[in-house]
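Try it yourself: sequence plus adenosine-5'-triphosphate, in.
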Amino acid sequence: MDGMEAARSAFDVLETAKVEPAVRRLPPGPDAGNATCEFAAVDYRYPAPDTDEAVLVLDAVDLRLETGEHLAIVGPSGAGKSTLIDLMLGFDPPTEGGIWIEGVPLAEVDLAAWRSRIGWVQQDPFLIAGTVFDNVRLGAAGADRTAVVSALELVGAGELAARLDTIVGERGGGLSHGERRMISLARAVVRDPDVLLLDEPTAGVDTETQVRIAASFPQIAAGRTVVTVAHQRILVDLADRVVRIDRGRIVAPAPGDLR
Ligand SMILES: Nc1ncnc2c1ncn2[C@@H]1O[C@H](COP(=O)(O)OP(=O)(O)OP(=O)(O)O)[C@@H](O)[C@H]1O
Ligand SMILES: [Mg+2]
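Structure, out:
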């Protein structure tokens, strides 16, 4: 797509975003041969009701996420990495520019259907009051004990699989930070998603647990499109491609980014 065409398409997206489309479209799925997600000249500002000077958090971002690829996103704190993930999930439309999901303009996408195909590990893992089982099953209401055990084992959390009925609190009482991360990952994986969006899945986790989570990645990522926001080398090295973002812009990779 050339620049002009991108700008026109972006304009169409903005126009259609103003009205609720009569028909929401299902993204055609991973086998249809489209990029999973495409950003063209995307700017994003958080709504700032009290000021006209909302900061540009994403600045002219062009990004094509191929179906089946494993992309790492790196960059300093505050660069816009989590915002990029939020836009892929359709939480807010871009301020300028266009986003397509499997070729469908984001403004027309059936967001519930799209999100049902995504496993999202949020940057701040959260737990509900309940058991380990309840917390993993939050990812897939229909999951039975066998499915929850497999998901936990897949992410390297065999011990938790043996403690399904342990009560954990809203604040993760009784669980280590690493265990909370593994529950979040298992919650994403139990959905059997086409797309995994992992926002710093090993942040604040000790090295041994990082190694364990990283070791589970080949199985977790197999047959899926994966975006991993990560600072740790061990995760970045697993990706097919690394994109660096700095102050909202995609920039050239730093020397240490590439293998
Ligand atoms: N809800 C919000 N309202 C206003 N500004 C926000 C909001 N969320 C994030 N920001 C700002 O947007 C910028 C990008 O934030 P974002 O969370 O995307 O960064 P990040 O790259 O994920 O950083 P980190 O590595 O610390 O997680 C930051 O300057 C942040 O302060
Ligand atoms: Mg973030």
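One thing you can check immediately is this: The longest strand covers residues 56-65.
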